[in-house]
Amino acid sequence: MVMQFISLNKDSIYRLAYSYVRNKDDALDVVQDAIYKAMKTKASLKDPSAVKSWFYRIVVHTSLDFLRKRKKVQPMEDEKLQTFMDGAEDVYSDIDIEKTLEELPEKYRSVIVLRFFEDLKIEEVADVLNENVNTIKTRLYQALHVLKGEMKDYISKEER
């Protein structure tokens, strides 16, 4: 049951891990560690219909543990490094959503990523993060409010 879920959802699982660690190889390591942890503790899964939120919770916690260990010291990917070496600049005037998300506090980023990028329902997000549904609704509202403020600031700068 668990392996079948992982096989069918490997892209989403990788995307979730990548949204936290921001590095291809590290995301693969996180996924591998999460699978190992899931296999070790699959007996704790009492409701097979909750395998998605159960496994996503493992991935989120494994990602956060990884980040705590690394203390935000991340090597730059080759593509980004090459961009700086060539002296190329980002000439786009659009908002860098990735950068904006990284600047959000972790509790807000997790809710945004799980809700909108992984397309989980509010109840599933609450289950993954082991929080109350109302807490998740509040965090989602607050996160969207912060992002809206960032958008207004950006638009104001562009109009000058």
UniProtKB/TrEMBL annotation:
The keyword Transcription applies. Signal peptide: none annotated. CDD domains: Sigma70_r4. The keyword Cell inner membrane does not apply. Keywords: Sigma factor, Transcription, Transcription regulation. Gene3D superfamilies: 1.10.1740.10, Winged helix-like DNA-binding domain superfamily/Winged helix DNA-binding domain. Residues 96-144 form the RNA polymerase sigma factor 70 region 4 type domain. One of its GO terms (biological process) is DNA-templated transcription initiation. Residues 6-72 form the RNA polymerase sigma-70 region domain. GO terms for molecular function: DNA binding; sigma factor activity. Belongs to the sigma-70 factor family. ECF subfamily. This is Sigma-70 family RNA polymerase sigma factor. It comes from Paenibacillus pinisoli.
